[in-house]
Amino acid sequence: MLRIRRFEERCVELYSASKIRGFVHLYIGEEAVAVGVNAALSPEDAVVSTYREHGHALARGLPPEAIMAEMYGRTTGCSGGRGGSMHLFDVSRRFYGGSAIVAGGLPPAAGLALADRLRGLPRVTCCFFGDGAFAEGEFHETANLAALWDLPLLLVCENNLYAMGTALAREHAQTDLAMRAASYGMPAWAVDGMDVEAVAQAARRAVEGIRAGTGPHFLELRTYRFRAHSMYDPDRYRDKAEIERWKSRDPIGRLTERMRDDGEPVDEELARIERRIADEIDHAVDAAERAPEEPVEDLLRHVTSARAGEVNRQ
Amino acid sequence: MSTAGTQETTTYREALREALREAMRSDDRVFLMGEDVGRYGGCFGVSLGLLEEFGPDRVRDTPLSESAFVGAGIGAALAGMRPIVEIMTVNFSLLALDQILNNAATLLHMSGGQLPVPLVIRMTTGAGRQLAAQHSHSLESFYAHIPGIRVLAPATLEDARHMLAPALADPDPVVIFEHGSLYNASGPLAPQAASVDLDHAAVRRPGDAVSLITYGGSLPKMFAAADELAADGVDAEVVDLRTLRPLDAGTVAASVARTHRAVVVDEAWRTGSVAAELSARLAEESFYELDAPVERVCGAEVPIPYARRLEEAALPQTAGIVAAAHRAVG
Predict the structure, then answer these.
(1) Which of A93, A247, B46, B100 has the smallest CB count inside 10 Å?
(2) Is any Cβ of chain B less than 8 angstroms from the Cβ of A295?
(3) From the candidates A87, A303, A307, which should be mutated to test the interface with B, based on the most B CB atoms within 10 A?
């Protein structure tokens, strides 16, 4: 969680310094979701993500330098500089993006799960999406398909109460998302998304159920982003008191306090982790600064794979 | 299919079915999914009998959820399967256009080459059966506009039978348009025809007076027009594009270099059509070969009407093609 937090805080600095550009959607405040859910997954499982995916990618084990280089648009980035902040991919870690079309990752996630089911592989596909995606038809089409076909799919709705600037109650006639997901005949729970242990426990229970062959499961993780929707967002639609109220439930702070209460030597440990993470991020930024940019002659690479490396057919 | 060396009469529908059967027999990663492909036997009867042969896992009926099942095809392709997704008509494919454009066509590039999507999508297109506007449009140009996908339009029995195998072998998404009026077309099909070259257009009938260029469902009208023109002493060359992306402008240019006149026929609306793209290519690359302006015979700019007379008037017809060719020849 600390790695995600510090990585993104550095992203803010780099964005302000115009080192990285484009849309940057920060995950600060939601770290418990990515970390808790990933703790329940194995390397063979697949993860499909959204445009707010730095946290998912780091929790999945993508190296910070590969992500930072991607933000810099360098060839050493995890998507070769073609994706940027919203489109992180790492096929070696079965990390399938990085979709910036709200709910656009849901149908392919069902397909990844379908492939595993057809081949009898005991793997799980985990798809992250937000409460905004829950309003899209693709969520409902996918939930129906997954339940109908008993697909090994973990649907993780990060309910941070806002779809861009639109509050949950202004986008949903019925705001109990877990209840609505349950109507497709799948187990569905609402969980405190600010509590990493509660998230991990719920995710483990869901993944065990999926591996046991009981079809898709749904988790609604109630969370909050402490920052605006993106770096462009003036955040006029939220009450300051509301933001402060949620910040008092900071998942990192809560875990630290709990460990302290349990008598663990948390402060020395934290200081050590902080130093290591700072070094790691310094290194990632330094490597990204020095990494090469792809030559413009390679512009048409990766449009089709038949002639990858050459100019593609038109 | 039949004894080697003999020709068997078949239909376009049966040729497509045989291609599907061969694909599923030869590769257990291949499966077919779409609305009514299983128990119903395919909305147009193409997959009739395949459920019995391959079972419900591999001939998979889907809900009416174009976006979900096309997207599921993308995910299955990413995971190493070779899905063939059937969409009932191109009109309905618009519900899945987000998945096709923003995911299937884009993931390879956006991932820096990590995520090829070996997906085949089949759909019907075209008018001529009085199905009115929401079942009759020709939107091939929408798809031909998109980098990252291959767009095929089999117009002959041979292409219907033999385009699927190379389409499945393509590591990238392939969209195949089957014109609804061709399903009942029948004729002889060589049992061991050469495999189809997806990169090149085909000269279906040689001639030296004018190049008639088209694809898909308009090809039979082109042959009829060429017959009429021959009776008038005009020796027309018929070029079948077959692949709308990547467009083989080279074969077209070579034909025009022989005939010096071009008539492009496209059932789609003229504005922004494949015919528009081809005409632009000819203007760019074959300007000095042309002895007359490029003629275009396209669909009228109207949603396709139900009434037979109006529908016929909205579509390219043989008489209009013949007239355009005569104008070009002068």
Answers:
(1) A247
(2) no
(3) A303
The SS3 of residue A30 is coil
CA distance B34 to B87: 6
Span between the terminal Cα atoms of chain A, in Å: 44
Give the global pTM.
0.95
Burial of A250 (0-12, 13-18, 19+ CB in 10 A): buried
Of the pLDDT bands very low, low, confident and very high (cuts 50, 70, 90), residue B8 is confident
Q: Tell me the pLDDT tens digit for each residue of B244-285.
A: 999 999 999 999 999 999 999 999 999 999 999 999 999 999
Q: How far is B253 from chain A (nearest CA, A)?
A: 16
Quick: pLDDT tens for A19-35: 999 999 999 999 999 99
Distance from CA of B297 to the nearest CA of A (A): 25
Share of chain A above pLDDT 70, in %: 97
* A144·B65 Cβ contact <8 A: yes
ipTM of this predicted structure: 0.94
Map out the domains of chain B with their CATH numbers.
7-187 (3.40.50.970), 200-327 (3.40.50.920)
Q: Is residue B247 a contact partner of residue B264, using CB atoms and an 8 Å limit?
A: no
Name the residue type at position B48. Answer: L
Beta strands in chain B (DSSP E): 8-11, 30-34, 59-61, 82-89, 120-125, 150-152, 174-179, 186-189, 202-205, 210-214, 236-240, 243-245, 262-269, 295-299
Cα–Cα dist A152/A57, whole Å: 21
Tokens (6 digits) for A271 = 């200081």
